[in-house]
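Inverse folding, one chain.
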């Protein structure tokens, strides 16, 4: 259902605010949605407002009038007696900037979103003299952070920090804009906005007089200062300032800690005008020594939040008649974030459909206030201009878009859309296969005009309800049923491929009786894998490891099987050829050595079936050993006594087992001890 249907008569009412006009306001449409879609249909908004500083979508928005969630996240390093905090998002990443009473400026980066903790803390400046207000703006794709500091007219100054590419994660350049003719006189708090082509800033001096900073059309220029005074004496211990524009009418909101009140300053259609002040007072005693205020727009209503030092609580302000120019309804939400004498509150920030506020406490801990969205939408929120989302349950839903959150020209639009149930679909669950296997997927439904599977990768068909897939790597196959233009339902099925690799090594040829290590570098390694070599013939090392040592008695093909925890296996083989083509004997031996085969000197061959003779002679030609046993070994003795060191001559006459080929060889061996 569109906004036109929502407002009954296809009428979008627009009212012009005058200083005493409290009629309702509505923003022009910021985006459009179809009237109806079915559950599971991917929705992409159209006609989205261009050139916004930020886009914050909430597809299942939080109730900003409800009691928020909160927590005290404890002490944050480098934040010490904070005097101000601002939150900005750049490139989808949130940053917070803090000024401390000790004179430091600190940046924190939240890579995991504002729901997490800062992942990096960087000091940007130190030695600032009593910094007491900061404000971030973006102009022509460049970020600029302004800080006011000083205790009196002699040392008060305005500082600007310019961030070059790559944006807020870069180190800024400090620009000292000076004392501004000494007119600031102990400035505190800061607000900056662009009105038409001109930039204006507002701060207060130590006497609670309102100062207007006029930059002209160039925010990088040095502003002129106009003292607007303590208008009608309403300002009393100013503790925070924020602003918002409503249909070209500008308003600032001020909290007075000493005066225990909230003020609204209305400028009309230009910030160059002299404002008039409405004292909203304590709002029926729901304001208690306030130290922070933030205002935003939620569809057609405005909401504000006041941080109370006196009661350590948050008070919600709700402008129920959709105009910021009336007195809001105030509700005390209590100590929702374990506040401990809170002293400062940040601007509002949206992230993934949630709304956040941060508060610093006297004990230097940080409290976080959170309005979370419901869980019906997937995803709950987004920050790009043209997001995609869908709903899993039927019913009427409201989609919110807020642009320029945390800025005075913040605008919010909401559109309603009706979700109806799509026809039942039977579809396969996510599954796992072993590498090289095939699995059948199905998608069954009635009433669809057509079906389609994507991607067209290792799949038997892209249009049949039953398909066989055999991916080589983990793949999400999406089965899409086309019922109607606004009912196209895509269902992903993740086919996880469990991979394991066996590498038995390269085939090789050995001399008869030699050993070799088998196993290759491509084998998957890890404690979660099991290994098995077969057959066990000739294995002289463990058969349950990724590599092993073998001494095959003849040609053998060895197989390596690797199995992972999913039960998937891979098998590879290596052929070890052992030709019977020569006599194989060592050229030295040491009697009793553990490295001597069989603890003696003898044939290493495994394929000699017949030994006609194997004889050993000393250097004088006397025979010292003789055998016809293929396993016969000389133990290095002569007639029971140790043979002397030296060189001995051997002779062999033997036949191969398979080929019956006869070899006659002779050689020498050195006996060592």
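Residues assigned per position:
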């Amino acid at each position: 259902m569109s906004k036109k249907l929502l407002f009954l008569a296809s009428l979008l009412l627009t009212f012009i605010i005058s200083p005493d006009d409290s009629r309702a306001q509505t923003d022009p449409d910021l985006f459009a949605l179809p009237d109806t879609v079915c559950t599971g249909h991917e929705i992409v908004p159209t006609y989205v407002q261009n050139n916004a500083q930020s886009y914050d979508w909430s597809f299942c928005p939080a109730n900003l009038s409800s009691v928020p969630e909160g927590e005290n996240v404890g002490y944050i390093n480098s934040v010490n007696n904070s005097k101000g905090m601002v939150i900005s998002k750049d490139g989808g990443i949130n940053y917070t900037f803090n000024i401390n009473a000790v004179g430091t400026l600190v940046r924190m980066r939240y890579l995991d979103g504002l729901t997490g903790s800062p992942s990096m803390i960087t000091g940007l400046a130190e030695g600032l003299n009593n910094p007491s207000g900061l404000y971030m703006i973006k102009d022509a794709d460049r970020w600029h952070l302004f800080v006011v500091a000083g205790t009196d007219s002699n040392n008060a100054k305005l500082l600007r920090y310019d961030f070059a590419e790559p944006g807020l994660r870069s180190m800024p350049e400090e620009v000292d804009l000076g004392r501004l003719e000494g007119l600031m006189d102990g400035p505190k708090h800061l607000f900056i906005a662009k009105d038409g082509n001109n930039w204006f800033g507002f701060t207060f001096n130590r006497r609670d007089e309102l100062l207007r900073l006029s930059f002209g059309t160039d925010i990088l220029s040095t502003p002129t200062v106009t003292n607007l005074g303590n208008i009608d004496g309403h300002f009393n211990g100013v503790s925070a300032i924020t602003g918002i524009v409503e249909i070209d009418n500008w308003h600032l909101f001020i909290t007075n800690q000493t005066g225990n009140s909230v003020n609204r300053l209305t400028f009309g259609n230009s910030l160059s005008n002299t404002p008039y002040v409405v004292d909203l007072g304590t709002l029926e005693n729901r304001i208690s020594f306030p130290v922070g205020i933030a205002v935003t727009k939620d569809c057609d209503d405005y909401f504000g939040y006041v941080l109370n030092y006196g009661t350590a609580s948050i008070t919600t302000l709700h402008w129920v008649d959709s105009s910021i120019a009336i007195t809001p309804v105030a509700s005390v939400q209590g100590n929702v974030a374990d506040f401990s004498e809170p002293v400062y509150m940040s601007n509002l920030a949206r992230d993934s459909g949630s709304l956040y506020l941060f508060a610093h406490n006297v004990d230097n801990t940080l409290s976080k206030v959170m309005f979370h969205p419901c869980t019906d939408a997937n995803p709950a929120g987004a920050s790009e201009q043209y997001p995609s989302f869908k709903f899993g349950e039927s019913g009427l839903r409201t989609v919110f878009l807020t642009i320029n959150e945390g800025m005075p020209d913040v605008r919010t639009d909401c559109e309603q859309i009706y979700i109806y149930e799509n026809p039942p679909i039977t579809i396969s669950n996510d599954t796992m296969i072993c590498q090289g296997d095939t699995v059948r997927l199905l998608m069954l439904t009635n009433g669809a005009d057509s079906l389609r599977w994507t991607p067209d990768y290792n799949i038997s068909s892209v249009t049949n309800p039953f398909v066989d897939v055999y991916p080589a790597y983990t793949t999400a196959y999406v089965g899409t049923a086309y019922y109607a233009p606004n009912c196209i339902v895509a269902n992903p099925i993740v086919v996880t491929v469990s991979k394991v690799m066996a590498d038995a090594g390269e085939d090789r040829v050995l001399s008869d009786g030699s050993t070799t290590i088998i196993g290759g570098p491509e084998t998957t390694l890890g404690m979660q894998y099991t290994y098995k070599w077969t057959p066990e013939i000739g294995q002289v090392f463990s058969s349950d490891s990724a590599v092993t040592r073998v001494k095959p008695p003849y040609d053998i093909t060895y197989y390596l099987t690797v199995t992972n925890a999913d039960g998937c296996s891979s098998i590879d083989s290596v052929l070890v050829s052992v030709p019977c083509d020569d006599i194989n004997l060592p050229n030295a031996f040491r009697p009793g050595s553990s490295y001597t085969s069989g603890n003696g000197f003898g044939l290493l061959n495994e394929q000699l079936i017949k030994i006609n003779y194997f004889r050993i002679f000393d250097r004088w030609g006397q025979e010292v050993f003789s055998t016809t046993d293929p396993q016969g070994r000389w133990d290095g003795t002569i007639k029971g006594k140790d043979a002397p060191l030296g060189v001995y001559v051997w002779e062999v006459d033997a036949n191969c087992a398979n080929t019956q080929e006869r070899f006659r060889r002779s050689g020498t061996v050195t006996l060592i001890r």
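The first helix runs from residue 3 to 6. Residues 1-26 have pLDDT under 50 and may be disordered.
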